[in-house]
Amino acid sequence: MSKFGQQAQLTKALQSVFGVQSYHAERCRTDLYRNLKRDFISLQPATQKTLAKYVGRPTLSGQLSPTSSPSYSSAHFTVHYTTTGADAPDLTDLDADSVPDHVERVAAVFEEVYAAEVTTMGYRPPPVTSKYDVYLQDLTTQQAYGFTSEDRVPTAPAVSVGSYIQIDKAFSDSMFTVNGLYTADQMLQITAAHEFHHAIQFGYNYYFDIWYGEATSTWMEDQVYDGVNQCYSYLTDYVPLGSTISLNAALNGGSEYGRWIFNRHLAEQHDTQNTSVVRSIWEKLGTLSPTSSPKTSAGDLQMPPVIDSVLVNSYGSSLAADFLGFAKKVYARNWSSHVADLNRIPAASIAASYWSYPVPSHVVTMPHYTFAFYRFVPSAGVTNLLLTFTKTTGAQVSVLKKSGGVISEVAANDGGASYTVTGFGSLNPATDEVVVVLANTTNVDGHQVSFSTDGSTSTTTEPNVNTGGNTGGSTASGGGGGGGCFIATAAYGSYLHPKVAELRAFRDHYLMTNAPGRLFVAAYYRLSPPIADVIARHEWMKGGVRCLLLPLILAVEHPAAALALLLLVLVASLRWGALYLKGRAREAAAA
Q1: Could you count the other beta carbons within 10 Å of the beta carbon of residue 557?
Q2: How far is CA 422 from CA 204, 425, 427, 435, in A?
Q3: Which pLDDT score is estimated for 539?
Q4: β 362-366/447-452 pair status
């Protein structure tokens, strides 16, 4: 309930009192409202009464029902607004046609979006009885640009469903314009492009997986309104964290919006004048039923099998191949479209750099659909660099050489287990480098790669899907950051143990939603796999680790009690400190 009603209003009030302003409002709350409607019947009656107004079409301020408000219709849309109360937009009517100019502007923008997404790009329009409904509301208390809501859950075997859109009445608050970085009209434009594509998505299949829905809608913002570029601000929540956040992770601290960049890669690789790979993916989704397709923990259709099917059958590629290609492009920055905006894309995050040689065998364990980069800095003492690899079946490797600003891919030696970088010692250590790209190109956690420069190898172990691997089943898109809690899994013996699930939830809700937490998780995934391997092989260590984890688990399970205990300790410490200082002062006075 924290994102509805009083909690949202409290947050807004605190911001106004203390001058604290979030970087920007939440991009979209489509999934929040979809989940509320799904779970509404299971809520307590008191909770249902509080949230009832959020599960149906809105009644605007000063109105008696959703249908009583004034409206204005264009060719494909009906814009609903009110003239009184908090939801009323700017009522200026310079052309004296009895319709506020802003309402007409909203309709015009949505018509631009319709022309781009439906007429030009070929997406199927959302199902409507007459015209598509858009409601203007004051969403500053909810701190959201807008959202799209379905009218109902489709009756099987149907999967298509109608919907309606709610957007902020003005986008003039600084949370929407990011303290004036963008104009209110720009925010109207990209919100319309974003939310209307959600309407299209509901029309294809109500059971769309939310991460790809948000990634596509955010990508669509830049396709329709290329000059706004606000979507690039979300890339920092994903691109530098690609080693810990899975491509198909669930909603995850804003990274779902940043994952739109994968669609750009797909479009650059496969689009032609007559085909659109992203549209093909949604068209394929529209043919599938949740009763006969792999589902997420929320009951929606998993996207990796859908994307893979389209790439294999229509484009001669695969999701594995394209994900590795995407990872290489993140490092090489050889994007072929929107070239004027390349500086807006964050640089790759290097997991580790090596200056001293030889480098002994090192094992990297990766969550599903993640990538990582390891840098080797040229050394005059190493004429040719030999890189040796062992890997599990779901891991892929690429070796890239940067020389004089030009990046090229190094071919594997015969057998594919090693790569030789000739002339490594003659490269400029100040500007040149060799980078190893590692990727887990499957929906299974725990695939491993071992690499070295001295020819040594380490054993890599195929993931055990019963104790730590994501099998691609119901949990595939519900894991937040996407990685297993390796040490806890080893200690409790199963990825599905309730205590491990609690720690994963803590990671997703409290660590992955902020930069320090994500840095901690990234470090944990780099350091914990070998420790977990040792723990898993010794029963006596498992019990000890469980004891060490107990205080953390108790804090996760009982945060209020943990906070009270912490405050009690803090107060006691301060009191003891004050008594100690007072005693020392008395001793000094007596002396």
Answers
A1: 12
A2: 51, 8, 10, 14
A3: 76
A4: antiparallel
